[in-house]
């Protein structure tokens, strides 16, 4: 077997837990599979599998090799699909990652448009406020927000959104309406625990820095929304997070004559992989949604390269 076929055989062995199961799936004899794995171990000079009467178990090195081999096989399959389908609609599987609240409010409701345009495409959406490893999780493109620190990953800034201080009419009726950033010191804030609670406000040439405090700290954007809507306090949040409620009056902005730093939305692509046509097309689609111009052209070049490390994100 060639190198890629050997990887495929090893992946099947791990997933089946036996040489015989892998052999049945691949339509070859069990001795051929056993020999292939032995040759892999000899070439790599490391034990990949532990053999016992209970079956086969990958070693730590075997697990690492399995994850990388699985991704290599997937990339090879995608390369063939793209070559065969050049100029045709998108097909295969697209695996994306996004913050839960942002995706629930802005992305998932509009996915029918994208999927109807590409009937041969399947999507898997991983919703998580944490930053996950794109390579090990097999993510094609992640939507992340905020400032991206330096690293080797490739990112494209696709939108920039506003931030506001928001609260419900019920909370403001009880606690009063802050008129200046300094007034926030006398208010209960719902604090997002993964970000700094210090903020800089601007009004013309004036800058005011304030640290918001509150009895409630929340680790996810869904919790921020729920707490604010329960009249527990005000919050500094992206306009994306409270878009429906800002539109219907369930929450309102305060300190509207002061501005906060905007929040950037990035499409982040895995390190060491060429961004696929599917991933670029989806990034263009999201850019069109959040910028209010519908789905933008899906053949746009990958631009706005940026380096990034792991960071917290918030819808």
UniProtKB/TrEMBL annotation:
Every HTH lysR-type domain range: 1-59
Keyword annotations: DNA-binding, Transcription, Transcription regulation
SUPFAM superfamilies reported in the protein's UniProt record: Periplasmic binding protein-like II, Winged helix' DNA-binding domain
Record InterPro entries: LysR-type_TF_proteobact-type (IPR058163), LysR_HTH_N (IPR000847), LysR_subst-bd (IPR005119), WH-like_DNA-bd_sf (IPR036388), WH_DNA-bd_sf (IPR036390)
Transmembrane domains' residue ranges: none
PROSITE patterns for this protein: HTH_LYSR
PANTHER family assigned to the protein according to its UniProt record, in alphabetical order: HTH-TYPE TRANSCRIPTIONAL REGULATOR, TRANSCRIPTIONAL REGULATOR
Name of the protein in question: LysR family transcriptional regulator
Organism: Azospirillum endophyticum
């Amino acid at each position: 077997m060639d190198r890629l076929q050997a990887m495929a055989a090893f992946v099947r062995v791990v997933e089946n837990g036996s040489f015989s199961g892998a052999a049945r799936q691949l339509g070859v004899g069990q001795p051929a599979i056993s020999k292939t794995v032995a040759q892999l171990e000899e070439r790599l000079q490391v034990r990949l599998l532990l053999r016992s009467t209970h079956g086969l178990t990958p070693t730590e090195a075997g697990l690492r090799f399995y994850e990388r081999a699985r991704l290599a096989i997937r990339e090879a399959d995608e390369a063939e699909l793209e070559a065969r389908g050049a100029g045709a609609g998108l097909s295969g599987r697209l695996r994306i990652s996004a913050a839960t609240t942002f995706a629930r409010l802005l992305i998932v409701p509009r996915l029918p448009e994208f999927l109807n345009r590409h009937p041969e495409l399947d999507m898997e959406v991983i919703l998580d406020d944490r930053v996950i490893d794109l390579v090990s999780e097999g993510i094609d493109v992640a939507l992340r927000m905020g400032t991206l620190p330096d690293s080797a990953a490739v990112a494209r800034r696709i939108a920039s959104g506003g931030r506001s201080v928001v609260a419900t009419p019920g909370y403001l009726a009880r606690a009063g309406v802050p008129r200046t950033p300094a007034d926030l010191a006398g208010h209960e804030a719902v604090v997002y625990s993964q970000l700094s609670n210090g903020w800089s406000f601007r009004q013309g040439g004036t800058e005011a820095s304030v640290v918001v405090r509150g009895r409630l700290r929340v680790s996810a954007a869904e919790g921020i929304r729920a707490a604010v809507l329960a009249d527990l306090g005000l919050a500094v949040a992206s306009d994306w997070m409270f878009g429906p409620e800002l539109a219907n009056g369930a929450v309102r902005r305060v300190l509207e004559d002061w501005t906060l730093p905007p929040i950037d939305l990035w499409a982040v692509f895995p390190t060491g992989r060429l961004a696929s046509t599917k991933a670029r097309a989806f990034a263009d689609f999201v850019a069109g949604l959040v910028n209010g111009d519908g789905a933008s052209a899906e053949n746009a070049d990958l631009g706005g390269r940026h380096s990034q490390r792991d960071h917290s994100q918030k819808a």
